[in-house]
Every structure is written in C-alpha cells, then in structure tokens.
Amino acid sequence: MEYFAAFENILAKNLKVWEMSISNEVVKFKIRKESKKLKLKIMKKLFLGVGLVAATMSFAQTFGVKGGMNVSSISKDGGLSDTKSKIGFNAGVFMNAPISEEFSIQPEVIYNDLGSKVKYTLNGANNNVEYSTNLGYIAVPVMFQYNATPAFYVEAGPEFGFLVNAKSKIKSGDSSASYDLDTDNFNTFNAGLGLGAGYYFTPNLGLTARYTAGLTKIGKDNTAYSDSKNNVFQVGLAYKFK
Predict the structure, then answer these.
(1) Is residue 163 within 8 Å of residue 144, measured between CB atoms?
(2) N or C, which end of the chain has less CB nearby within 10 Å?
(3) In the beta sheet, which residues pair with residue 106?
(4) Taking the complete model, does pTM exceed 0.70, yes or no?
C-alpha cells in the first residue's frame, strides 16, 4: 500500500508538472498569436500611412506668385452710372492644393489696388476735373478650381479683404494733388465673390482672369461710401514653382 501511495504521489507531481508545462505552452501560443495580430495591425497601419503619403505626394501642393492689372469701380445701389473704372494693380502669392485630379483649392494673399474715378466739369467746359479714389486692400481669395483640362481651369470662391490705406487724387489740367482719406470713415473688412478662369501655356506659366463682385459696403453709415461696394476685373500672369 505504501508503494501505491508513493507512486500516486509521484504521478500527481508529474501531472502537475505536465499541466504546468501544457499551460505554459498554451500561454506561449496565445502570446505568439496575439503578437502576430499586433504585428498585422502595425503592418496595416504602416501600409495605410504609406498609402496616405503616396496619395498626398501624388496630389502635392504647389506654390507660386501672381500679378496683373485691375480694372476696378465702385457701385452705388448696384449701379455704375456715378463712377468710372480705374486702372490699378494686384500682386501676391498663392498655394494650389489639389484634392483630386479634377478639383483643387487655391488660397491666395495679394495686395489689391481698388477704387474708381469720376470726371466732371467746373466753371465752364474747359475746366475738366478728374477725381479718383484709391483703396488698398490685403485680400485673401479662396478659389475652388475645376480643371477642365490639364492646362485650363475655371474657378469660383469668396474673397476677404482688409483695408490698409485710402487715398484720393484730384487732377485738373496740368496740376494734380493727392491726399490721405480718413480710414475711420471706411469699413476695414471687405468681402466679395469671385468668378474666373485660367490657362497655363507651360506647366509653370499661365494667364489668369477673374471678376470679383463686392458683397459688403465700403463706407460706414452716414458717409459718402455707405451704400457703395467694390467691383474689380483682374487679368494677369501666374507662375508656379515646380
């Protein structure tokens, strides 16, 4: 009986060792299995990241400079009979960010020389006077572009401007004088809606055209421009750095 008891003790100890060994192997197997799952997740994330980078690289942003001529006017109550167009200029930088093969977004930061001029006669037909209003804005257009072809696009979007200077010039015969206008009479913020198109002769150099209609009033209440808005037609050149 003692031998049987001793054998049972030895067998029980061995079973415990075997159970522990089997348990350890199960744990190791589970760890290996979870490790494989974790590696697969990491690999999937890496592949996804590489795919996103590749997609971003395939639609990489481009930067450029632009400039050209402004033909601007100031409308009062939607009419243009009270003012004539004034020639000015625009110049600045832009970033073109494609979001697909056909569409892209182009934010810009440009200096916009806007305003208008009026001609009238004083003291007889031979005394012609020309009065021009020159309003300088730092403008931020955000254009949404549709690329009809690799070289030609159409665009539309809002433009936000901030008044930085306001001047007037009076010319009568051979004499002229200019002076600063009180910016306190003008609204600092200016908003408009732009519609345009462009054509690139080369991958870098293109011709641009845009008309922007004013949405906000130029002047504050009870001032000369309280019912007036900016309007401008722009034509110029754009150069992309590639």
Answers:
(1) no
(2) N
(3) 143
(4) yes
